[in-house]
Amino acid sequence: MAIDYNKEKAQLDQLASDGKPAQELTFESGNEMAAMAAAQINYHIMGYFPITPSTEVAQYLDQMKTRGEHDIVLIPADGEHGSAGICYGAAAGGGRVFNATSANGFLYMIEQLPVQSGTRMPMVMNLVTRAVSGPLDIRGDHSDLYYGLNIGWPIICARDPQAVYDMNVMALRLAEHKDVRLPVIVAYDGFFTSHQKRRVNYFSDRKTVQDFVGELPTGYVNALDPQNPVSIGPHMNDPDLINNHYQLSNAMYNAHDVFAEISAEYEKISGRKYEILDSYRMEDAEVAVFLLNSAAETAKDAADKLREKGIKAGVVSPNMIRPFPTKEIQEALKNVKAVLVGERADSYGGHGANLTHEVKAALQEIKGNETVVLSRVFGLGGREFFIDDADKFFDLAIEAAELGYAKQPFDYYGQNPGEADVTPKRVLEPLYGDAFKTGLIEVKPNEQTGKLDVKVPPLRQLTAKPKRIAPGHGACPGCGIFPGLELFFKGIEGDLVVLFQTGCGYVVSTGYPYSSHKQNFIHNLFQNGSATLSGTVEMFHEMKRRGEIQVSDDFTFVMVTGDGGMDIGMGPAIGTALRNHKMIILEYDNEGYMNTGSQLSYSTPMGHMTSTSGVGKHQSGKRFHHKDTAQLMAATNIPYVFTGVEAFPQDLLKKAAKAQWYAQNVGLVYGKILIACPLNWKSKDELGGSIVETAVNSCFFPLYEVENGITNITYNPEARNKKVDVVEWLKSMGKTSHLTKPGNEAIVQDFRDEVNRRWERLKAKHENEYL
Amino acid sequence: MSVLPIKNEHGFYEIRLESIGGLGANLAGKMLAEAGVLGLGLNGLNFSSYGSEKKGSPVKAFIRFGEPDLQIRDASPVERPHVVGVFHEALYKTVDVVSGLNPDGVVLVNSTRDFDEVRQDLNLEYGTLAIVDALGIAVEEKTKVNTAMLGALFRIVDFLDPEAMRNVIRKTFEKKYPHLVESNIRTFDRGYNEVQFKKYEVPEGAKGKDFERPLPIYGYETQPIGGTVINPGNSILKDLSGSRQGFLPEYHADKCIHCASCDTACPDMCFVWEQGTDKKGRPQMFLSGIDYQYCKGCLKCVTACPVEALTTKREEIGFAEEHRVPQKFILASK
Asked: Which of A75, A103, A523, A559 could form a disulfide with A130 if both were Cys (CB 3.0 to 4.6 A apart)?
């Protein structure tokens, strides 16, 4: 519900004078209010993985945690599939569980969601709605939400930040109710609701919320009660499954009346009313639009204007879509001449997206009903919905009402044909073959050493070689990604096929209709780039074998990923390594999920500040040590593993040349380049090169290679008398400045010990070829 | 009794801030909105343009005020603002910052130039132009541009209470950074006091700047299926000079040893090389200059240069255009 100040103030005063719980007025976004509700409820566990635009919920909770405002255990998962697993396991443990996600994150966890509803483990998840890829679009529509219609989770909708707070307080009670016992989704619009600040009321005392939610219900199965052992999730055959699902179906329908009860009770303490179906000026409406969430609010303004002109216009908008409010829809629309159902998603080929058909089905049950239903898919990928768009929806409904039928029952709204003479034209002449061959780089196997001998020229000579990436990309000033990648590519001769997993490097180099990639490029979502490129590699070799591709030299295939992609994509990367495809996995490591706003990754070192490892009284940055991805990949026994930084260019060039040889002749190569992120390292733009140099000299990021299983340190700061303490490196970045101050000595010592332990072990491996 | 001096047909007073990521326009927008909503009890809405924009990319922040009892349902961006705040002068090369400005609106620009020049660059026919040297103030006070801009905005949006804003500044800094309180208050006050105005008369019946919602370049009949970019490398057409925040590298060819350290360090492929011959007559590569079209002013190259052939320069208007050495791309023949 939108805020009506006078009413609201009068209500607040009235409530206060009735001795009702006190409320505060604030100015916050939907994500802030979801976090606020979760903190007040004080859930036990949140297992999460960052994805725009829901990520902020975990960030706000982390900030509150650093201030000691709640006790929720925030568990950074390895991906959404993992986060859903954490939440399921935690729910099976019997406590209270919370999560937030969006778009492909939701789809990545969707396999787990019917498991949770089918085994009847309540929790609350906020779905901050966003367009599902592909092509990738980070903004809001409902295409993710529509995948959730069949998973057995009740779905309640929150149309503005106030509703996000209120629905979150009510959702847990709904989930835990004895007649429901299901996990519940609270859905609100990505960006429109998640990021817009509005006036919001919330309960001053968290006890009010906790009293409303009630004590954790007991008497239900859980895995942590030794006195009552249970087997959760046995496999079940055909005679039984239908009965389980019938129970689930009944529980889902029960959620309708249970929500109505909870909502009525909530109104008593909050003064805010949420009907199952939000009906605006529908009493005598002849034309209506049916819309979900924020767009419905915009349409109300349009309806007001039409009413001024004497047109009986109204808006219907469900606050709950699972279970679908059939009765309420019938009641609201039975006398309406025409209704337009606008949907921010499509069910391709279905002649209207899902809710169109549910509205039609509801009306079809009314004998003799003649309401015309129009269906329009609109607002995809975050396309705005202005009042004049709502006007056009009403115009279509008015026309259908007058005609008694719909000229075009289903269509898209807002698409444009383009101008026939404006089509993409080549800008750069394609560069391939000899264009990227300098003849200056020599790689030869040395039979005596079993290693490769490499000769690379000075950098100056390689400036004649064209860059692989075109300028004009949108990376932040001072970004280390492209210096790192280009330096590596300088060491590669001939044609490349690259795949970039989702991450900063991808996003800034391919904003449609632009691309900065001069040679063939593929994107795939960042859990799956290794597997995807391995398919392309095998297709190349098979088509070549069949004589269907004629090329003089093989491509070099490079899968480029950030450190985040090596978290969520670790499984496919290891699978690809074990299959030993002829390709390179190249990781640019900036120690965090920078593309989504600097959340911690497993590569973030201990104590470092990120947006999900805040620094404050109750927390001092990340709690566990950085992941040693190079050693993990080396353990798959692939032919070549290396590390590099731009500050040691000849070292990285040589490794690139070797990487190419191994990837073309033997199998998989993995390399990790540490690159600076001035924005989120909170360091000066111009110092990126020297900061990664200090990281090497502190032995935090040793330069080495593992060639055919044999470790070789390629630069030893001790031998060069360049070794510095880790504090020298920590001093150079804002994200670690707290570590150099009194009170954090123990964390620094722990970090130093770990760095030294790994360095000593590496030296031992360098000394002994069998380690 | 209303505090809002003017309102649009929906009853809103609207502000749009135009900036690049990293200058703090988002935060300034939030503070303006809070001053109206929490300070004056107005109803209000505030958000920023959203996408995958990084630091240095154009961003917008929107503020919509209404009377306390007016419902705000419209979640769409501000298209016809009463006030526009331009945090970054170079933006108007690539963004129509005054798009949709009301005829009696005010546009505030962070600039050191004079009114008529700025007016010409903005294509502003009439309305009030306000200019403040926010960058200069921030440099002198060692504070942030957005605080100086906020000061000027509080002067323009004069129904808001500047004293309340001073309190917010005090509260923000006094706990953790008490030594920054005074300089930030000074920055705010200087923005407030030093902003200059010039009014360009509004002719009778003036309609304000047209606003057109931009359509995508390609439509469903012209966009290649699958969303593929079939002309990759086309990002060379972009101009990124608007990402610079007042500084750029200057190249001194006489000191250069052509070591290519700058080329390795540069994130934006700005260095232009040419084949020549060395003293012994052998072919060799030589640095010929910098393509400032792509330079975002990170100055990594200045740090990397071992011989001071690259130095940091405060950017003056026209310098980059005059000294730019364009990259020699091989352009497609048709």
From this structure: A103
For residue A499, the cross-strand partners are A522, A559
Interface of A with B in 13-72 (CB under 8 A): 25-27, 29, 53
Closest CA to B98 of B116, B124, B77: B124
Q: Identify the CATH number of the domain in which residue A289 sits.
A: 3.40.50.920
The answer as to CATH 3.20.20.370 being correct for domain B13-200 is: no
Q: Are residues A285 and A165 in the same domain?
A: no
Which residues from chain B sit within 8 angstroms of residue A458, using beta carbons? 259-260
DSSP H helices in A459-550: 459-462, 481-490, 504-509, 529-545
Q: Do A419 and B222 touch (CB under 8 A)?
A: yes
The pLDDT assigned to B125 comes to: 84
Residue A512 belongs to a domain: yes
> ipTM of the predicted structure?
0.93
Calpha distance A44→A182 (Å, rounded): 17
Stretch among A45-59, A459-473, A557-571, B87-101 having the lowest mean pLDDT: B87-101
Tens-digit pLDDT profile for residues A692-730: 999 999 999 999 999 999 999 999 999 999 999 999 999
| A694 and A722 Cβ atoms separated by less than 8 Å | no
3-class DSSP state for residue A161?
Answer: helix
Q: How far apart are CA A618 and CA A615, in angstroms?
A: 8
Protein fold of B229-323? Alpha-Beta Plaits (3.30.70)
Per-residue pLDDT band for A392 (boundaries 50, 70, 90) equals very high
Q: Which two tokens stand for residue A631?
A: 């050693």
The answer to whether residue A417 sits within a structural domain is no
Whether the Cβ atoms of residue A311 and residue A369 lie closer than 8 Å to each other:
no
Query: Is A660 within 8 Å of A491 (Cβ atoms)?
Result: yes
Do residue A749 and residue A636 come from a single domain? yes
Does residue A385 sit in the same domain as residue A504?
no
Strand order across the beta sheet in which A287-290 lies: A277-280, A313-318, A287-290, A338-343, A372-377, A410-412
| Residue A608 belongs to some domain of the structure | no
Residues 6+ apart with CB under 8 A from A759: A699, A702
Nearest to A200 by CA among A403, A45, A26, A30: A26
Give the tokens for residue B209.
Answer: 């700047």
Domain extent, residue A476, equals 468-595+630-767
Bridge partner list, A641: A670, A706
Total domains in chain A come to 3
- Here the tokens at position B275 are 């084949």
pLDDT in tens, A159-179: 999 999 999 999 999 999 999
pLDDT digits (tens, 9 = 90+) for A111-161: 999 999 999 999 999 999 999 998 999 999 999 999 999 999 999 999 999
Nearest by CB: B50 against A139, A475, A689: A139
Subunit contact B73:A474, Cβ cutoff 8 A: no
Residue with tokens 């469903």: B220
Sign of the alpha-carbon torsion through B187, B188, B192, B197: positive
Q: Indicate the residue type of B163.
A: E
Neighbours of A201 (CB within 10 A): 19
Q: Does the distance separating the beta carbons of B235 and A514 come in below 8 Å?
A: yes
pTM, two decimals, is 0.96
Candidate from B43, B53, B297 with C-beta closest to A199: B43
B25: nearest Cα among B13, B36, B17: B17
B66 Ramachandran zone, left/alpha/beta (phi>0; psi -120 to 50): beta
Is residue A484 domain-resident?
Answer: yes
Cα nearest neighbour of B264 on chain A:
A483
CB A393 within 8 A of CB A289: yes
Which residues, listed in sequence order, are joined to residue A287 by a DSSP beta bridge? A313, A338
Task: For an interface test with A, give the residue of B32, B54, B270, B327 to mutate (most A CBs within 10 A).
Answer: B54
Question: Where along chain B do the CATH 3.40.920.10 domains lie?
Answer: 13-200
Chain B residue whose CA is closest to A467: B269
